[in-house]
Write a structure and sequence with these properties.
By secondary structure, the protein is α/β, with parallel strands linked by helices. It folds into two domains: 155 residues, Lyase, Ornithine Decarboxylase, Chain A, domain 1; 213 residues, Alpha-Beta Barrel (TIM Barrel), CATH 3.20.20. The chain is 30% helix and 25% strand. The strands form three sheets. Strands 1, 11, 14, 15, 16, 17, 18, 19 and 20 form a nine-stranded mixed sheet that branches. A hairpin with a 7-residue loop joins strand 16 and strand 17. Helix 9 packs across helix 10. 43% of the residues are buried.
Length: 395
């Protein structure tokens, strides 16, 4: 059950009405202390002077961008990374003044104006994009040039100018009066793999690109290459800054990195038992009767479903923690409910809280567990929980 402090947090999330939080059928708990701990532990791996960017795009991987950003900055992050202009504006509207790098691209004239107005720092991926920015900024009265970051494609084949064309790209941007280069960076495609072949090739290309830029007499204030996997796997990838996303939320990009640092999952998903019933042998459960009771059994109907973010493909193949015991989910997962076989705990009551993801006692179910079952990645699981589930910050 939730502690008094957690109950108060739930109360605040729904307006301070004690009855209102009791009525919540399901929610996501965010352990800000665990988040802070993860950042502190990761920073211990860095060389003195290496800056830490907390990546808070996609609503901080579903954890709540504003509270995560505020906590990350208090824990030692000095930069924030987002994917879109609106994500950056949300942080500015919350009073956050730290540098915010937009990791995405494709900007409209209106977005460029908003970037300048809100003092966000965009990624430029091509000479064409830089020229468009310069033309739009010519019409805006700026107190100083816009701080921009140049991205090189060293093997991801996604955003960025090809690394072999880096010196021409940088020289063009340097000549544009309204742009001020703050960094040159690239992104690693396979840093989470034990096979370092591609990562080392990308690193070599990045070093070659930087050498080419220096050869034309341009000094770049900041270089960065490492994502979470790169940060955990190799200090030579750290450069002037690391960009850490998944790891700050308590997950490892790959099993071979488990021993590098002690991380704690930040997110837990809780829900309430809505209904308890007994069904007889032979009774079918849920749509399609994909589960048939082999004997009389007790069922708990829990108020959370695929519309909240539980993958329907986990039907008949997931477990939930009830009083610290793993019990099986049965039948097809529906839009708003799941059914549990609670025959082993027959006195479960309606209104009781169960843990969908998280820890109870000595047992734990994580996003990585689901990812393994579904042949996907923990990033996708974390980002899947919809916002009809309130976020409850547990300090």
């Amino acid at each position: 059950m939730l502690s008094n402090e957690q109950n108060q947090s739930l109360s605040s999330i729904v307006g301070g009405d004690t009855y209102a939080w009791v009525s919540q059928r399901a929610w996501v708990e965010i352990n800000l202390k665990a988040l802070s701990n993860n950042i502190v532990q990761i920073r211990k791996l860095l060389q003195p002077g290496t800056e830490f960017m907390a990546v808070v795009k996609a609503d901080a991987y579903g954890h709540g961008a504003v509270s995560v950003a505020q906590t990350a900055l208090k824990a030692g992050a000095s930069w924030l990374g987002v994917a879109t202009v609106p994500e950056g504006i949300e942080l500015r509207e919350a009073g956050i003044k730290a540098p915010i790098l937009i990791l995405g691209a494709s900007y409209t004239p209106e977005q460029i104006q908003a970037i300048a107005e809100w003092q966000l720092e965009p990624t430029l991926c091509s000479a064409k994009q830089a020229l468009i920015f310069s033309d739009i900024l010519e019409t805006i009265n700026l107190d100083s040039p816009l701080r921009v970051h140049l991205k090189l494609d060293t093997g991801m084949s996604r955003l960025g100018t090809h690394w072999q064309n880096c010196s021409e790209f940088v020289q063009l941007v340097v000549r544009l009066p309204h742009l001020n280069i703050q960094s040159v960076y690239s992104h690693l495609a396979t840093a989470d793999s034990p096979d370092r072949t591609v990562m080392d090739l990308q690193h070599q290309r990045f070093k070659s690109a930087i050498a080419r830029i220096k050869d034309v007499g341009i000094e770049i204030p900041r270089l960065h290459l490492a994502n979470s996997a790169g940060t955990l796997s190799d200090k030579s990838l750290h450069y002037d800054m690391v960009r850490v996303g998944l790891a700050i939320y308590g997950f490892y990009p790959s099993d071979h990195l488990l021993s590098t640092v002690d991380l704690q999952p930040v997110l837990q998903v809780k829900a309430r038992v809505a209904h308890v019933k007994t069904i007889e042998q032979g009774a079918g459960v849920s749509y399609g009767h994909t589960f048939i009771a082999s004997e009389q059994m007790r069922l708990a109907v829990v108020g959370i479903g695929y519309a909240d973010g539980i993958p329907r493909n986990l039907s008949n193949n997931m477990q939930v923690l009830v009083r610290g015991v793993k019990v099986p989910q049965v039948g097809a997962i529906t839009m708003d409910q799941i059914m549990l076989d609670i025959s082993a705990i027959p006195d479960v009551r309606e209104g009781e809280i169960v843990t969908i993801l998280g820890s109870e006692g000595n047992e734990q179910i994580t996003a990585q567990d689901w990812a393994n079952q579904l042949n996907t990645i923990s990033w996708e699981i974390l980002c899947s929980f919809k916002h009809r589930l309130p976020r409850v910050n547990i300090a």
